[in-house]
Amino acid sequence: MQTAELIELWRGGQLESLHRGHVVVCDSRGVVEAWGDPSRTIFPRSSCKMMQALPLIESGAADAAGLTERQLALACASHNGAKIHTEAVESWLSTLGLEEPDLRCGSHMPQDSDENRRLTCSDSAPCQLHNNCSGKHAGFLTLNRHLRGGPEYVDPSHPVQRAVKAAFEEVTGETSPGYGIDGCSAPNWSCTLEGLGRSMAAFANPGSDRRGQAMRRLTDAMRRHPEMVAGEGRACTILMRAMGGQVAVKTGAEAVFVGILPEQGLGFALKISDGATRASEAAVTALLVHLGVLDKDDPAVTQFLTGKQKNWRGLVTGELRTAKGFPN
Amino acid sequence: MQTAELIELWRGGQLESLHRGHVVVCDSRGVVEAWGDPSRTIFPRSSCKMMQALPLIESGAADAAGLTERQLALACASHNGAKIHTEAVESWLSTLGLEEPDLRCGSHMPQDSDENRRLTCSDSAPCQLHNNCSGKHAGFLTLNRHLRGGPEYVDPSHPVQRAVKAAFEEVTGETSPGYGIDGCSAPNWSCTLEGLGRSMAAFANPGSDRRGQAMRRLTDAMRRHPEMVAGEGRACTILMRAMGGQVAVKTGAEAVFVGILPEQGLGFALKISDGATRASEAAVTALLVHLGVLDKDDPAVTQFLTGKQKNWRGLVTGELRTAKGFPN
């Protein structure tokens, strides 16, 4: 099957750029709707953080450490590196008797404008707490203390990553063809888009067993603490707020987006082939409207999809549009 | 004809993202090599600034104002907004008896890191001199003084823009289907990729007439002043320096790139369908190596194409590759 045309950029009444990709919507029995090729293998990147957090809960590590729901949301986050995120990770580490150098995620400048400006103008370097994945890594370190593993917890053969891989393959129902090293240095296992979509449907239809309970706790943590999952100005936070905590959504690098719709019993996954964030944000917005969980008149829809593109003088230059047939 | 697969992003031995597009290489007689569909209509955006500058010279306005070669390079630039650029535009305007408010390009934060930091940390707003197109607009204002037009020189019906459109259609050999408003508020006329490629071949094979002389002056200005055409750290500047002033290259928004190769008598144009700069920079680098004007061992090739992708801890995560068949 072919890649589907999903999002177009128009200027002056002419098509200027085009984003292709794959989208799949699943319920507990399998695929219910798709565009493009759901059998395509992708790297879920940060979109699978709620799957990577399953062993943290299922092992008993989260409860042994007394993690709050807010901390569980942070374990699933790609955050802005704002003060609310860095302080939460720092205090989490301190309860484990650990500090910033125990992280293995590396440092990058935070996306949060206040914190970015503070560092820039005081000539300060960012630290690993600012890394958008530092919450996930605090989760890894919490699991690691429980498993009594060594300090190099991002090594694919480390007990933490073996547990993550096992959960990932069980939930996707696939044997992963392999991993890539993610931006935060953790292994990221690939799967089919359909496998990722079915996983999200599993989170939307959790059983009463240990796994189902862990899935429900993580979904609830994400949709109840949208500010911890990303941050001010970010699509995940804005969209989850716009849907009133009904739905959990999560982005991943290279234009992946997933969603968990517990009330509808649906999960979805999408990947823009070229990796463009503007297109994954527009596509997830269109899909959420299509699925009836996001009001088409919500300001978030204007922001990510239907709003006119404007230039530096505020003149309208063009617009994003969904390509013909997406959504139907 | 279909869009061609051009640039791939690999991670952990698996294809993660893919950029498609169109590429055409022309000599004075027409297309000599192509990937994808050269008949596709595109917006050249800033890649056609040397065409937009033709009336500036051909009208006699440039010489009447005593413009230097460095200023002609700036008229063709998408610059960083560094001090060397903003000061050059400011002094240019002052020789016309004009000031920053006479520009109609709008303001945005400069890409130059020193100037960006200075503005950010002094809580200062950028001005129109920082706009990457302010040199082109200084050229428009120079032509406008010569033509005795009104102050709204970006209006499509203004004498300046009518002259630009006429030159653009003559050089492309096409009647444009229409314009879009560019980021800098000037009209940007669309053409086929082949039309853009043939135009670059015309610049590479200039006649001895008025137009040919203007083309030669603009090509020479660009390749002799690469720091004015973009700035430190930018692909146009780095690639032109790497080729020792032999070739002029110019990027445009939404992933357009053109090149003028006078010694080979060739011109080229490319457009990445999805608008991704990382892919247009990788593709132009591959094409320049293919055309024999850029050494495959040059650091610029490592920077834009063959270098390993690394994460925040410096670990190798993947690589860019040209797709099979590009270049042949």
TrEMBL record, chains A, B:
The lineage of its organism: Bacteria, Pseudomonadati, Pseudomonadota, Alphaproteobacteria, Rhodobacterales. It comes from the Bacteria. This is Asparaginase. It comes from Paracoccus caeni.
